[in-house]
Amino acid sequence: MNVKTKRWDSAEHLKTQEDVQLYLEACIEEAGDDPAFIVHALSVVARAQNMSQLARDAGLTREGLYKALSPEGNPTFATVAKVAKALGLQLTIQAPASSPSNNQLHASGITGA
């Protein structure tokens, strides 16, 4: 018996804003120190949306957005922030829940003016 398979495309399963948010959160958690993984996740979300409209909403050209989110692309933080905002998302930074010193900053080596 022959089994036909189809290449998996996550973009086909990102139907709602919640889907997009959960997908990006999972990808960021999985990415570790690999920013290319996060850029790839953004490109998947961009494909799930209307790429032309997303580019307009982000203040970019469609070609510029494709280039920035391509495997060879290296988008600036500003571009990533614009794309996130155009997707209706907000970038945040937080300490990991498992960090033993969440509320302490180490000031050694810092000099004041």
From TrEMBL:
<protein>
    <submittedName>
        <fullName>Putative addiction module antidote protein</fullName>
    </submittedName>
</protein>
<dbReference type="GO" id="GO:0003677">
    <property type="term" value="F:DNA binding"/>
</dbReference>
<dbReference type="InterPro" id="IPR001387">
    <property type="entry name" value="Cro/C1-type_HTH"/>
</dbReference>
<dbReference type="InterPro" id="IPR010982">
    <property type="entry name" value="Lambda_DNA-bd_dom_sf"/>
</dbReference>
<dbReference type="InterPro" id="IPR014057">
    <property type="entry name" value="HI1420"/>
</dbReference>
<dbReference type="Pfam" id="PF21716">
    <property type="entry name" value="dnstrm_HI1420"/>
</dbReference>
